[in-house]
Amino acid sequence: QVQLVESGGRLVQAGGSLRLSCVASGRTFSNNVMAWFRQAPGKEREFVSGISRSGGSTVYADSVKGRFTISRDNAENTVYLQMNSLKPEDTAGYYCALRSAYYTGVSNVKEGYEDWGQGTQVTVSS
Fold it and tell me: What is the spatial distance between Cα 113 and Cα 2, in angstroms, rounded to a whole number?
């Protein structure tokens, strides 16, 4: 059973930057597409970004395109989310997700992922 542990969330002012990390253990990380989702209070969990197994292909939600960058280090079993030009509407719990090794492409729906971390809170003040 894989374990995903996120870190890096905190309170930041609008316009600032954060880098989130997600460390995976218990499985060969490089076999899995990874993604970040976020969930604000009272809202559905939404796709933020995803990355292919090699890291060569990335997908972003329109709301974060040009501001966020996803990357991965398979040797360290870690996926990152660099968040720049943060806005108050980026405030949410951010969750790391792992897709079954059966699939090679990024899914932008939460049902496409089988394992989740506990989340890390990002709060952007105006």
Answer: 12
Q: Is the pLDDT of residue 41 over 80?
A: yes
Percent of the chain scored above 90 by pLDDT?
A: 95
Q: CB neighbours of 98 closer than 8 A, spacing ≥ 6?
A: 2, 4, 24, 27, 32, 33, 34, 113, 114, 115, 116
pLDDT surpasses 90 at 1:
no
Q: In b/e form, how buried is each residue of 74-92, taking b as 16+ CB within 10 angstroms?
A: beebbbbbebeebeeebbb
Which three-class secondary structure state does DSSP give residue 29?
helix
Report d(CA 11, CA 16) in Å as an integer.
10
Report whether 24 contacts 98 (CB < 8 A).
yes
Checking if the pLDDT of 29 tops 90, the result is no
| Structure-token pair, residue 60 | 């972003």
Q: How far apart are CA 67 and CA 23, in angstroms?
A: 22
Average pLDDT of the chain to the nearest whole number = 96
